[in-house]
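Example for tutorial group B:
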């Protein structure tokens, strides 16, 4: 494993093109993450077309660097202007912005950058030692096991513990329906193409992703007329670097946050948002001064930021090893892998091991570049946020249309982009989650393929899904996840007995 990783570093460092795209990816990712509201999903969807004319290693390095960069960059606007760059940076506003108001913006920015680096390193170590192990376990999976796993992933990604569990289920079913558009993989019949030749091969993943997240974001901003109001605090170079003692005192929170983020990141559909809230809660409970949280507690900043970036490595493990994206951002990354001819799953390490291990090395190099970039150029990014905000809506829209047209140079794709943009806008207006929809659209073909393979190989015997212990385990887990919210909802409240006087 270590020798393969060393070979990966050699491959990465001997490829000037891959190193250049790594630098471009972390820079673009940091900028996209720092722009309020964009985040890793929109950022990767917008920049996905850049990979179409690139070789496999460079395209994979670019997407992973953008992913990491957006997770780093989200904290910048959270700390400086109290506007989270993405969902994972929401918790950063709790103590990051109060620190900036106290005149410690430089301290907060640098401490969070170091915490992000620690989280990224923990995610990297986990990827190196667990991904191949999980890939070997995945070789035990047949069509029945894969069907049950994907079904569990879709249900788990719905987040059924929220107040209205029906909406994510409907979004998932709708995504599965649209994933069937195209030519039937077994019979060759056309499905839901409505006579359009352009739909015979289905709908391009990039068109759906850019429309759902990019165009809908532009429409939302146009409606709400988002205005950050400019910088709230001025940065001084002398305040950029915290003391060594201040960093060391927060090492515990960084390690704890990294472990939480990595473990939660492996779970399907959880993402960085859940891990950051869990880390913040843990740090507040462990703190000797919990009353300082929300007023500028360094542990309330360093823990969640480490968790935020460690979740990236966790989310990439099932993506590479099982072909199951661990988050919505990983789903877009998986789409990019498929577009350049790389099939995620256990065989990826046999067929393309050189590229995979080189990408792991690039993951670590990207973390180092991001640490340097986010410390040295903090004032530049802060000014950029202030200046580019008025032009953000047309910039997003233009990038979406140009990027989608460059996929196939087809106006039909532009119409699909508009349709999915309006669909994403409508779903967000009525509080339907986009992530379960996109998950289902990505995994729908895999779910159907494994279902039909399992039924065909068992000559129509549906008990094949219950005979395998692995398949049975995931089916039971799926049933529990489905039933649990309704049990909690209908559970009668036990009132304490009234005290008699």
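The residue assignment follows.
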């Amino acid at each position: 494993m270590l020798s393969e990783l060393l070979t990966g570093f050699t491959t990465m460092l001997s490829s000037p093109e891959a190193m250049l795209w790594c630098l471009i990816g972390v820079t673009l990712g940091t900028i996209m993450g720092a722009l309020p509201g964009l985040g890793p999903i929109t950022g990767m969807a917008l920049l996905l077309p850049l990979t179409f004319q690139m070789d496999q290693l460079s395209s994979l390095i670019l997407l992973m660097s953008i992913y990491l960069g957006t997770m780093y960059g989200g904290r910048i606007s959270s700390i400086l202007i109290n506007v989270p760059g993405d969902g994972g940076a929401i918790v950063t506003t709790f103590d990051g912005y109060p620190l900036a108001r106290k005149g410690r913006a430089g301290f907060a920015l640098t401490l969070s950058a170091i915490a992000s680096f620690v989280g990224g390193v923990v995610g990297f170590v986990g990827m190196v030692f667990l991904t191949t192990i999980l890939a070997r376990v995945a070789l035990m999976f047949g069509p029945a096991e894969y069907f049950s796993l994907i079904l569990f992933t879709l249900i788990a990604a719905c987040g059924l513990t929220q107040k209205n569990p029906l909406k994510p289920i409907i979004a998932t079913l709708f995504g599965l329906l649209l994933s069937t558009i195209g030519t039937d993989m077994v019979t060759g019949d056309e499905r839901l193409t409505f006579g359009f030749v352009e739909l015979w091969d289905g709908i391009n993943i990039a068109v759906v992703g850019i429309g759902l997240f990019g165009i809908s974001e532009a429409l939302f901003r146009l409606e709400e007329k988002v205005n950050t109001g400019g910088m709230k605090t001025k940065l001084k170079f002398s305040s950029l670097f915290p003391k060594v003692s201040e960093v060391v005192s927060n090492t515990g929170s960084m390690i704890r946050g990294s472990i939480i983020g990595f473990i939660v990141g492996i779970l399907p559909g959880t993402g960085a948002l859940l891990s950051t809230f869990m880390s913040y809660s843990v740090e507040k409970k462990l703190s000797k001064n919990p009353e300082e949280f929300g007023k500028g507690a360094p542990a309330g900043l360093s823990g969640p930021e480490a968790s935020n970036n460690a979740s990236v490595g966790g989310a990439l493990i099932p993506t590479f090893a099982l072909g199951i994206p661990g988050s919505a951002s990983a789903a877009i990354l998986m789409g990019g892998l498929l577009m350049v001819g790389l099939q995620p799953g256990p065989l990826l390490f046999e067929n393309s091991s050189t590229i995979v291990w080189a990408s792991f090395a690039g993951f670590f190099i990207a973390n180092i570049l991001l640490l340097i970039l986010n410390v040295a150029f903090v004032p530049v990014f802060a000014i950029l946020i202030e200046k580019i905000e008025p032009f953000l809506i047309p910039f997003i829209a233009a990038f979406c249309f140009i990027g989608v047209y460059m996929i196939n140079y087809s106006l039909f794709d532009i119409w699909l982009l508009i349709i999915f943009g309006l669909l994403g806008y409508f779903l967000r207006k009525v509080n339907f989650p986009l992530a379960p929809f996109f998950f289902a659209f990505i995994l729908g073909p895999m779910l159907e393929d494994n279902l039909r393979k399992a039924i065909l190989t068992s000559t129509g015997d549906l008990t094949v899904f219950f005979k395998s212990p692995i398949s049975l385990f995931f089916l039971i887990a799926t049933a529990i996840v489905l039933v649990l919210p309704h049990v909690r909802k209908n559970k009668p409240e036990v009132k304490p007995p009234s005290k008699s006087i």
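Strands lie at 182-183, 190-191. Compare this with the pattern of hydrophobic and polar residues in the output above.
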